[in-house]
Specification:
The protein is an alpha+beta fold. The protein is built from 8 helices and 15 strands. 24% of the residues are buried.
Length: 279
């Protein structure tokens, strides 16, 4: 899926380059910092942008994250000075008031539950900080028209922590603010569950239908068999009673007071209008 961005994203690239250089400087020459950053970039797959007929577009959305705490300040793509929030001891602290005041006419807060793309990650071992720049996922948030706002947050750790911490330990802290979006998986699971449930329901329905149908058919068959069974002819019955039971005879033979009703496989003899014999 491709999400179109305005041409101002090119300016966003420039603004990202202006993130305080301490991150990149600390990363250079520090093997542990570089390794940590590589691990984080691998696990938090960054959004990739490309050019589509003069407009910047998302060629790979990477990993979609869900904001867990309000306090991130979103700025437009042409903003050259980031207003970074800080995450420390499990709490997100909004950017300073001066920065927020300067951007108040052209900014937005990222609410809890907002979905974002990770766009840039840096590690500063000297300050024990990890910086994230995230881009709002406008299509995920049903933002129309799209805004393409980005926000920066700096995760602050205790002194010396990053020099020895494993990437999964650092991610435990990051995940408190940016949880992986699993809505697509949940949707699929729900769909699969509904489909399976529907299939099972249909199977049950078919089973009931077949069972009921077979039962009804057998019942109807039994009734048909009962109806198809030869009707009994009893002594003393009148011709009308015999016709009601066997239908009209193929032939009637009259010999005075004696009558014989001839059927395909049966002859019924009447004397004085009463059955006296059946063969």
């Amino acid at each position: 899926m491709k999400v179109k961005f305005g041409a101002a994203i090119g300016i966003l690239t420039l603004s990202l380059a202006l993130v305080p250089p301490a991150f990149s400087q600390a990363q250079q020459g520090a093997g542990t910092g570089s390794t940590l950053r590589d691990d984080l970039v691998k696990n938090y797959k960054l959004v990739k942008l490309g050019n589509n007929q003069g407009s910047t577009s998302v060629t790979d959305q990477g990993k979609v994250l869900v904001v867990q705490q309000a306090g991130l300040l979103g700025l437009p793509a042409n903003s050259l000075v980031p207003c970074a929030a800080h995450f420390k001891d499990g709490t997100l602290h909004s950017p300073n008031m001066m920065c927020k005041a300067a951007a108040r006419n052209n900014s937005k807060d990222f609410p809890n539950g907002d979905k974002v793309y990770p766009m840039k990650i840096d590690v500063n071992l000297q300050k024990d900080e990890v910086s994230f720049v995230v881009l709002e996922c406008d299509t995920c948030n049903n933002t129309d028209p799209p805004t393409y706002y980005h926000a920066q947050v700096v995760f602050q750790f205790s002194k010396g922590y990053l020099a020895t911490a494993a990437s999964d330990q650092v991610e435990d802290t990051i995940d408190k603010l940016f949880a992986a979006d699993t809505s697509n998986n949940n949707d699929n699971s729900n769909n699969n569950g509904n489909n399976n449930g529907g299939d099972q329901g249909n199977n049950n329905g078919n089973g009931n239908g077949n069972g009921n149908g077979n039962g009804n058919d057998q019942g109807n068959g039994g009734n048909q068999q009962q109806q198809a069974a030869p009707a009994s002819v009893q002594l003393g019955q009148t011709p009308d009673q015999v016709v009601a039971a066997l239908g009209q005879p193929d032939k009637i033979v009259t010999l005075g007071a004696k009558q014989i009703y001839v059927y395909k496989d049966l002859k019924v003899t009447f004397v004085n209008g009463k059955v006296t014999d059946a063969q």
